[in-house]
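Figure S7 source data.
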Amino acid sequence: MENEQSIQQRRTFAVISHPDAGKTTLTEKLLLFGGGIRTAGAVKSNKIKKTATSDFMEIEKQRGISVATAVMTFEYDGKLINILDTPGHKDFAEDTYRTLSAVDSVILVIDCVKGVEEQTEKLMQVCRMRKTPVIVFVNKLDRDGRPPFELMDELENKLGITVRPLTWPVGMGRGFKGVYNLHESNVYLFQPGKTVVEEHRLLVDNLSDPQLDQEVTKTAADQLREDISLIEGVYDEFAREDYLSGDIAPVFFGSALNNFGVRELLETFLNLSPPPRSRETDLRTVDPGETAFSGFVFKIHANLDPRHRDRIAFLRVCSGVFERGKSYHHVRRNKDIRFSTTYSFMAERKNAVDRAYPGDVVGLYDRGDMVIGDTVTEGERHNFQGIPNFSPTIFKEVVNADPLRTKQLEKGLKQLTEEGVAQLFIQQPGRRQIIGAVGELQFEVIQYRLREEYGAASSMKSLPYARACWFTCDDREARETFRRFREHQIAEDKHGRPVYFAESEWMLSSIMRDNPKVTFHFTSELEGTGVTRESLAGIGGSSRR
Ligand code: G4P
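Tokens for the predicted guanosine-5',3'-tetraphosphate complex:
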């Protein structure tokens, strides 16, 4: 009973966007409403800058703080809200995709001037595959953006979803007057200013109310009447089930910076969005209401303090109640494990937590036992599915610059790649260590951290590969022949699974044609979801070549 009530109260989601559309600003305003933070700027100052590669020093500086924003928990209107942060930088797209496996819904922010951008399309592709419910927030209405109908069309065409506006802008840019709520038939008037939290709510019983003309000018009121009659003619009635099944995305308009339309968004979001949902494992579907605890690790943050090798593994609770100090089963290692140091993330603070419920994220103090994707249960031996291991697109061999520190280098590489920053492959003979990542920035971060945290000097030698794919083959002879001919392009991932490196898409296609008995896999987890190779190919966060 206690569990059921806790489940119904919880909302776990991520705010996602193309960099600069306003994700950080919106997150911050949502937290302000819930008292999750006290001052504007608190989240912003933790934001990893997205400009140049040289910013990785900045990332390092902020890493210690950013763990506090990895999960932001606050209460609003009787609900307990967990916002999972996703890095904006495209070189960290993998981290974002993994975080999306731990949420129940998503708020997607679009810049009304720029419309749908590259990163938005990729993020949305992942949401579509998982049928994650999405609400769209069209931001920066205080700027002269694209006509709203044009934006609606673009959302549908480029993102492959059906949209349904639930609010509609009255004017835009300098002529922005406010937002009409189609459900409540009222207009919120816009008052520019970053500090304004309350919105003046003007109630009009119907759109022909002359008060509307007085407040927003006759021209703007007439335009609104025309737009609304068009919307009601074109779009179907909104049904929550269509949103929950991921078929329809409700759309809101506003300006995060001016704190406009944010409360509206938050309140509707809380009414519509799903509480923690059931999740697939390799054996069965796990329901959040089950009494036995289960959860999975979707993120690891290591070496917060360089003097200690401490790590925090972020675990999403999927069922039952997590209790600190209780013995749980670590499925991958087939071992029982007890977590005595556990954290929750409330109001800028990392607090000790004793109990956590489905939808919650617990920070587990870890000495190196956990890797991303690990499942923890009360004994059942199943593994949660859908935590993607994306195929990297840039590859470099790590060259040891100090043979006396070989051990440190190996340890550093193992631990850093376990954090999920990049993937490590080992190639024989000679145990060559190859790192694959989706962005250049990650190599700089790794090199820097190897030096600073492990005292290991290294250099990175670029390799001419563009794709890595896992391969399987039931026919022993075909497998050995393939291995023999392609030995120099084959390595093993951290689980010892064979991986083939291809120089280009073209080469890969011809290799696939020549080896029909070998099956190539492009992510190790998203198989069997009906997703085509082409649709996965672009989801590395980096462009195809
Ligand atoms: P991101 O996390 O998606 O990358 O975006 P972020 O919130 O950092 O916003 C990117 C820029 O857009 C910021 O300006 C921010 O102030 C601005 N912005 C966000 N919402 C709105 C809005 O509703 N209207 C307008 N006009 N601008 C908005 P910046 O100059 O890059 O940063 P800052 O100097 O303001 O911190």
